[in-house]
Amino acid sequence: MRNAMLSCFVVLFSVKGLAATGKTLTVGFGAHNSPPYALIKGEVNTGGVIADIIGEISDSLDINSRFVFVPRKRIEKYLLDGTIDFYLISNPKWISHNALIWTIPIFKEKNVIVVKKESKDYETLEDLHQKTVGTIRGFVYPSLTEAFDTQYISRTDVRSLKLNFERLSKGWIDGFIDSDILIDYVFKEHNYDDDFKVASYLVSEHLIYGVLSPKSDISIEEINNALDKLITEGVISAILSKYRINESGIAKKKK
């Protein structure tokens, strides 16, 4: 059954030589992983932060890697039943099942608000009162949950960052929330500095982790050792810099 499911969903298989261990790490990704996390054509992950980090982990552990296109709402299910072994861009606050196994923190990410260039700056939560804010469907914003639930702020969902930029441009929303990493990439790719700006109000700051299936043949110790080396040697920093992301997002190692 597992092989049948994989045959339906596997869209990219990459092997750098023949892995001595013979093991394969099956990694989930999806349309919700906006660039530069995943550079997707059709349902194929052609590159980006996820592919680069997985490539480095695979090389370090001498294993193969396989990418599987999955919807956001199926990530937890597929991790639990072993359809995928690993999912990279996550946080224990977003996927909470206690059977899942978490890596060490890899880097930091901030949720910020984008507004039109000519708009008044939002500096506090009170500035957002009665505003309509674009969000990503299925995503949780813990710091704003109460404000959304009480309609202090109106939340309106779409599937992608691109759609929120389009809605903001047309004046359908007052601003939108997303990752500073994704927004930084889009601003620089499309020269958006003259049209939009990031508001002063910081929605949240959190660490990014990977999450491992309890059914994976590859242990969390192996993955954590690989990640620790990549962080220490500056490889994660170099990957983020490749996509022109500010290096201040790198997770600091505990002393």
UniProtKB/TrEMBL annotation:
The organism named in the record is Thalassotalea algicola
Q: What are the alphabetically sorted keywords of the record?
A: Signal
Supply the InterPro entries for this chain.
Solute-binding_3/MltF_N (IPR001638)
The lineage, from the top, is: Bacteria, Pseudomonadati, Pseudomonadota, Gammaproteobacteria, Alteromonadales
Domain Solute-binding protein family 3/N-terminal: start-end pairs: 24-247
This chain's protein is named Amino acid ABC transporter substrate-binding protein
Keyword check for Signal: yes
The signal sequence is: 1-19
Family listed: Belongs to the bacterial solute-binding protein 3 family.
